[in-house]
Design brief:
The structure holds two protein chains of two kinds.
Chain A: H1 2-18, H2 24-31, H3 34-57, H4 68-93, H5 102-120, H6 132-136, H7 152-176, H8 181-200, E1 212-213, E2 217-218, E3 221-222, H9 226-251, H10 254-264, H11 266-272, H12 276-302, E4 304-305, H13 312-325, H14 330-350, H15 355-369, H16 373-387
Antiparallel strand pairs in A: 1-4, 2-3
Chain B: H1 2-33, H2 38-51, H3 53-65, E1 68-71, E2 74-79, E3 82-85, E4 91-92, E5 99-101, H4 106-118, H5 126-139, H6 145-154, H7 158-172, H8 178-187, H9 194-203, E6 206-207, E7 210-211, H10 216-265, H11 273-294, H12 302-324, H13 333-355, E8 371-375, E9 378-381, H14 382-404, H15 406-416, H16 418-423, H17 428-453, H18 462-475, H19 480-501, H20 503-520
Antiparallel strand pairs in B: 1-2, 1-5, 2-3, 3-4, 6-7, 8-9
Helix pairs in contact in B: 1-2, 2-3, 2-4, 3-4, 5-7, 6-7, 7-8, 8-10, 9-10, 10-14, 10-17, 10-18, 10-19, 11-12, 11-13, 11-17, 12-17, 14-15, 14-17, 15-17, 18-19, 19-20
Classes of the chains: A mainly alpha, B mainly alpha.
Chain lengths: 392, 535
């Protein structure tokens, strides 16, 4: 089965090499077919128009009113969905299983959290211009890496630059030494574990165990105001659409074909004359940046970021979102993030003691019986129905 | 008749001589003791101890409790409405009306307290004397010098004598005679403890223009002694660090050894390995609880009984996991990783449901507490020594199984060439299950060892999984020797680093080191050569 796959992807790659790359407008037309535009537009309409109306305009108690809890929960899951798509790019398409992706998410969150902490101003418990935890540590001034964090644009720059730099350096060394498969998984796990320990220290200057919390305002707006919440929600939705768009663009391009080929037979790709390092490094860094942006959107909505986000368990959970939805399928990643996280919030409220049983069983059953996830199952069923002559 | 008279006179004379100290106590000493001048009082206390240590204990107790009083020229102890003579000890029926209580200030109170705690040095029981001598060797001040001198004259036990010599040197640092101080400072180089170090370095402090120690010769000797002590202390500390590093390394080894079979030899990524450790630890806990309930008199020997139990419990769970899940994922390492992670969550929650989310208490048997004192600054605790020995024993057992038994032969054959072994009649499926069970069982033994030194709780395995993978990856896949060197090296390395930079930074440094190391040598320290590498 895998041999078949390899031949497919290889002919695709070599075939593409002979013809010139299609022009950008043509490519855009190809990925933005009418169905996609309708679905994307509908999604954007719901997120940017319908949800704000239902949340802000309708009074509390109206049957169609969306509660704070609901908006925050879905907003959070939208951020997770961005992470899932980013993760699918490297795992589903490039075959790199990272068990440390939570670190990029958390770094993005921390970088933006620094801005939010500065936004508290003098309103903290100690009424100091320093965040409470620094007052607690008896620090008199900000450490050097906090310089400029009160500027929104610098914070946005940090959100992208810090994780990108880490991913670039780490990825460069790892891919250059041809570390792959399980070895790569284990060292990424060690990386996130080490960073978690580092951030747990109070002296690191990121609030230690408690992390950042008690945010007050963002760009001058109150962070708890319904309008801010809905704006963040809409931004997360648009970011998810954007992520899906560039991911689709990449995976359907020649670049994406080479990536798939690397996933299936790295040595053969090298023999053909491609250098897998640059391909892997690009998609790895891009994935890290997308995760970081998701983290930056996540923190103001949830209102807290702490080193627990870097725990290996959190990172490995991302893999199960993608696996449940369907590895190597972009909408599968989104679907998986929604299924698993909705189940999680339902379980942890209704019967918390069974959540780990459920999650554990999910890991086992999906890997054993659903190698292509829910989307794969759906496609297979459709396929079989069509063969039997049933049209939908 | 004459003889009688002479002997009577002699007896009287003897009595008089024997009674002389008491007489001295009566007149001179009592007035000094009752005097308002603190220095007079202190010298009286010293003399009191020198004259009669046994009596001094009672009097000093009374003095520090404020019960000592002067009735005319008689020293009495007032206890509520009863009174007794402080010197003869006889009861006084009618409490004298005009008593004058002897009061003491804080300085004297402190001195009296030190004296009292050091007076045990005159006890007849050598154990009490040794304890007291040890106390003196830590807390001696110039005030206790007379006591120490007196005790040294009588002492015959070499160990106590040695302690007393140290105490004497420490005490004579306060002497006003430079020669005495010089001798003391020179002697103290034999006593390499942090306390002496502090004492000596205090001499070398300069207060404005004056040195704490005025004599230059004493200062230079102190400097030399200090250097010697520092050398000895550093030596002891380094040995201690290496030892704790070795014991940490053997714990890592125990945790990683099972992984060396399942991952290293069979190639299965088992993220539930930490949970197999946890099951071993809980099996130990269960055996301990069983002993408490049914054989309380044998409770100290529950560990030998827990050995097979923890091995079997983890091995059986491991074999069930292998049969139900892992078997279907051979050749798909990434999927195995995810599935076994799911299994680990499942096991954690199961244990949490059965035993509760709190840590359970697993006690060290009595024979594992205590330790061997090698140097004053180096004590090797028994439980760590036993764990090192245990790790060696398990390693030897595992080596024996893999290289001497038929099962081991089959395991190695299946790892090297599965289909060929199958053709030759090796039941490969059964061998997989048994080998996985063996690895899991060894993890269970690791859990037993862990239960003796760290907390036992449902989450305990999570902390070891990263470490154990690091050991196996660092050592090189498919290698027992590699795992041993990697575990011991990591243990010692991180302990030494820990002292230098703190525990968390040390851990991070070790992880970063491994990440960098794998970049350079992806196959570990001991790389397998040949065809098996690129599979």
């Amino acid at each position: 089965m895998s041999a078949q796959k390899i031949t497919c992807s290889l002919t695709a790659t070599t075939g593409l090499q002979e013809t010139d790359s299609p022009l950008l407008p043509t490519r855009l037309m190809a990925i933005l077919d009418s169905k996609t535009i309708i679905m994307g537009g509908g999604f954007a309409f719901i997120a940017c128009v319908l949800v704000p109306i239902l949340h802000l305009v309708l009074p509390v108690g109206h049957p169609l009113h969306l509660s704070d809890y609901f908006v925050t929960l879905i907003g959070k899951i939208l951020c997770y969905a961005i992470v899932a798509v980013a993760f699918d790019l490297i795992w589903g398409y490039a075959g790199i299983l990272s068990l440390g992706h939570g670190i990029f998410f958390a770094l993005g969150g921390y970088a933006f959290g620094m801005y939010l902490m500065r936004g508290i101003g003098m309103d903290g418990n100690y009424h100091s211009h320093l965040p409470d935890f620094m007052v607690f540590l008896n620090w008199k001034s900000f450490p050097w890496y906090w310089v400029g964090s009160s500027h929104f644009l610098w914070a946005l720059f940090l959100v992208i630059a810090v994780p990108a730099l880490l991913a670039l350096v780490f990825g460069f060394f790892a891919f250059r030494s041809r570390i792959r498969g399980v070895y790569f998984s284990i060292i990424t796990q060690a990386l996130t574990f080490a960073c978690m320990l580092l951030f747990f220290r109070n002296e690191t200057g990121f609030g230690g165990n408690n992390g950042f919390t008690d945010f007050k305002r963002i760009l001058g707006y109150s962070i708890t105001a319904p309008a801010t919440r809905v704006t963040l929600f809409a931004l997360s939705a648009l970011m998810l659409l954007f992520t899906l768009f560039i991911s689709r663009f990449l995976v359907t391009s020649k670049f994406g074909r080479v990536l798939t080929a690397i996933r299936d037979a790295e040595s053969r790709v090298m023999f053909i004359g491609y250098n897998p390092v640059s391909f892997k490094l690009f998609i790895w860094t891009l994935s890290a940046v997308l995760c970081a942006i998701a983290g930056a959107l996540y923190v103001p909505q949830v209102g807290i970021i702490n080193p627990g986000e870097m725990s290996p368990a959190n990172s490995i959970e991302i893999a199960i979102w993608v696996a449940v939805g369907g590895r190597g399928k972009l909408r599968g990643a989104v679907l998986g993030a929604f299924i698993v996280n909705l189940a999680k919030s339902w379980f942890t409220v209704s019967f918390p003691e069974y959540w780990l049983f459920f999650l554990g069983a999910l890991f086992v059953l999906v890997t054993l019986y659903l190698p292509d996830g829910v989307v794969g199952l759906w496609e297979k069923t459709l396929h079989q129905l069509r063969r039997k002559g049933v049209t939908l | 008749m004459r003889i009688v008279t002479i002997s009577l006179t002699l007896i009287c004379l003897c009595l008089f001589i024997a009674a002389r100290p008491v007489a001295a106590l009566d007149s001179n000493l009592i007035t000094r003791l009752a005097s308002d001048d603190s220095d007079e009082k202190i010298s009286a206390i010293h003399q009191l101890i020198e004259d009669d240590p046994a009596k001094a204990i009672t009097i000093l107790h009374a003095l520090s409790d404020g019960q000592l009083a002067l009735a005319g020229s008689r020293l009495i102890i007032l206890n509520g409405d009863r009174a007794s003579d402080a010197i003869s000890g006889e009861k006084i029926e009618t409490v004298p009306a005009n008593t004058d209580a002897i009061t003491i200030n804080n300085r004297i109170r402190r001195i009296v307290a030190t004296m009292l705690s050091s007076l045990d040095i005159f006890a007849s029981d050598s154990k009490t004397r040794l304890n007291s001598a040890r106390y003196l060797a830590r807390n001696a001040t110039f005030d206790s010098l007379p006591i120490i001198e007196k005790a040294l004259q009588k002492e015959t036990n070499p160990e106590i004598k040695n302690r007393l010599m140290v105490a004497r040197s420490m005490a004579s640092l306060g002497s006003s005679d430079a020669a005495v101080r010089l001798k003391a400072v020179a002697y103290l180089k034999n006593e390499a403890t942090p306390a002496t170090r502090q004492l000596l370095s205090a001499l070398l402090v300069k207060n404005g223009d004056n040195w704490q120690e005025p004599d230059a010769a004493v200062r230079s000797t102190a400097q030399a002694s200090l250097k010697e002590i520092d050398r000895k202390l550093a030596y002891g500390e380094n040995l201690d660090r290496i030892f704790t590093g070795l014991s940490l390394g053997s714990l890592l080894l125990l945790a990683a050894m099972g992984l060396a079979i399942t991952y290293g030899v069979m190639g299965i990524i088992n993220m539930a390995h930490g949970e197999l450790l946890m099951i071993g630890a809980y099996a130990t806990y269960a055996v301990q609880a069983f002993f408490r309930l049914h054989f309380p008199e044998w409770i100290n020997w529950y560990l030998p009984a827990a050995l097979p139990c923890s091995f079997l419990a983890a091995a059986i769970v491991g074999m069930i996991l292998e049969r139900l899940v892992i078997r279907h994922l051979y050749g798909r390492p990434l999927e195995t990783l995810l599935a076994t992670w799911g299994l680990s969550l499942f096991l954690i929650q199961t244990v949490r449901t059965l035993f509760g989310a709190q840590n359970v208490e697993v006690a060290n048997p009595v024979w594992m507490s205590g330790g061997i004192t090698l140097l004053p600054s180096l004590v090797l605790p028994w439980n760590r020594i036993i764990i090192i020995g245990f790790a060696i024993a398990v390693l030897a057992g595992m080596w024996a199984i893999l290289s001497l038994t038929r099962l081991g032969l089959f395991v190695r054959a299946v790892t090297q060439n599965r289909s060929m072994s199958g053709c030759l009649g090796v039941p490969t499926g059964k061998i997989d299950t048994l080998a996985f069970g063996l690895g899991a069982g060894i993890a269970g033994l690791g859990g037993l060892a862990l239960s003796q030194v760290s907390n036992v709780g449902p989450d305990m395995g999570q902390g070891y999984i990263v470490d154990s993978f690091m050991v196996v990856v660092l050592g090189g896949v498919g290698q027992l020797a590699g795992a041993v060197w990697a575990a011991l090296g990591l243990g010692v390395f991180s302990k030494i680093l820990e002292n230098w930079s703190g525990a968390v930074i040390a851990k991070i440094a070790v992880l970063v080191f491994i990440i960098v190391f794998i970049q350079k040598r992806p196959q570990g320290i001991f790389a397998l050569k040949g065809r098996t590498v690129e599979s």
